[in-house]
UniProtKB/TrEMBL annotation:
Domain of life (superkingdom): Bacteria
Pfam families the record matches: DinB_2 (PF12867)
Species lineage: Bacteria, Bacillati, Actinomycetota, Actinomycetes, Micromonosporales
Record's protein name: DinB-like domain-containing protein
Domain DinB-like: 85-226
C-alpha cells in the first residue's frame, strides 16, 4: 500500500533514521529543503528529471580534498586515502582547539557533539578493523560511542562508559585508533585486501578486507562533514 500525502503542510517537519526511498514528489514547494543523506552516492536522486547525486558528490569532493580517495582499491591508494582523511581531521581538531572551552561537547539539534563524534569513529575502527579485520575477541574500548539503536537490536552495550571521558582522554583514545589503521595499512598487501572477513554486525555475512576499510573511510568522511556542519552553528 502506498502512503499518499495530498495538500499537506509539512513545513518544519523533521525525519530522522527514516526511509523515503522511491518517494515521488510532484508540484511540491521545496524551498529551504535540507537533505542530509550519507547514501546519496547510491542514487539516483532526481530533481526536475535531473539526477543530482553525481553533482553533489563532485561538490563534496571539491570541498573536502582527498575525499575522492576513499574508494581506493590498492594498498598505496588506501594509504594515501588515510593520510588525507587524517589531515582533514587534524584541521578540524585544531579548529575546535581555537574555539571557546567546552565547544567540543556542544551538541546541535540533538546530534552528537564533536567529542562524541570522535568517540564514535574510534568505535567504528574497533568494529571494522579490530573485530572485523583483525578478529580480536574483545575489540571494543569502553570509551567508544555506539549508536543507541544497537541496544534495541540486541547488542550488549554495558561495556561502554555512561559518564563521558574528558576531552583530552577522548583525543588520546581517538589518536590510538587512528594509529591502529595507519599501522595496519603500512603493511597491507593486495592479497590481504582480498581476504574474506565476517561483517561485524552480521555474523552470517562475509566481505573482503577492502570492504571493511572502505566502511571506515566512509565513516571518517561523512562524520567530518557532519562535525564541520555543526561546528558552524556552535
Amino acid at each position: 500500500m502506498v502512503t499518499e500525502f495530498a495538500e499537506q503542510d509539512l513545513r518544519g517537519a523533521r525525519f530522522e533514521r527514516s526511509t523515503l526511498a522511491g518517494a515521488v514528489m510532484r508540484g511540491v514547494d521545496v524551498r529551504g529543503l535540507d537533505i542530509d543523506a550519507p547514501w546519496l552516492a547510491d542514487g539516483p536522486l532526481l530533481v526536475n528529471g535531473v539526477d543530482v547525486a553525481p553533482l553533489v558528490e563532485a561538490e563534496l569532493n571539491r570541498r573536502f580534498p582527498g575525499r575522492d580517495l576513499r574508494t581506493a582499491t590498492d594498498p598505496d591508494g588506501l594509504r594515501a586515502a588515510w593520510t588525507a582523511v587524517e589531515a582533514a581531521w587534524r584541521s578540524a581538531v585544531d579548529r575546535v582547539e581555537a574555539m571557546p572551552p567546552g565547544a567540543a561537547d556542544v551538541p546541535v539539534d540533538g546530534e552528537w557533539s564533536f567529542a562524541q563524534t570522535l568517540r564514535h569513529l574510534a568505535f567504528a575502527t574497533d568494529a571494522w578493523l579490530g573485530k572485523g579485520i583483525l578478529r580480536r575477541p574483545e575489540p571494543f574500548h569502553r570509551f567508544g560511542q555506539p549508536h543507541v539503536e544497537y541496544e534495541s537490536d540486541g547488542y550488549d552495550l554495558s561495556i561502554f562508559v555512561k559518564e563521558p571521558p574528558t576531552y583530552p582522554e577522548t583525543l588520546a583514545f581517538r589518536a590510538e585508533r587512528q594509529a591502529m589503521v595507519r599501522d595496519f595499512l603500512a603493511t597491507a598487501t593486495a592479497d590481504l585486501l582480498a581476504e574474506p572477513r565476517v561483517v561485524p554486525w552480521s555474523p552470517d555475512h562475509e566481505e573482503p578486507v577492502l570492504h571493511c576499510l572502505h566502511v571506515i573511510l566512509a565513516e571518517e568522511w561523512e562524520h567530518l562533514r557532519f562535525a564541520l556542519r555543526d561546528l558552524d552553528r556552535v
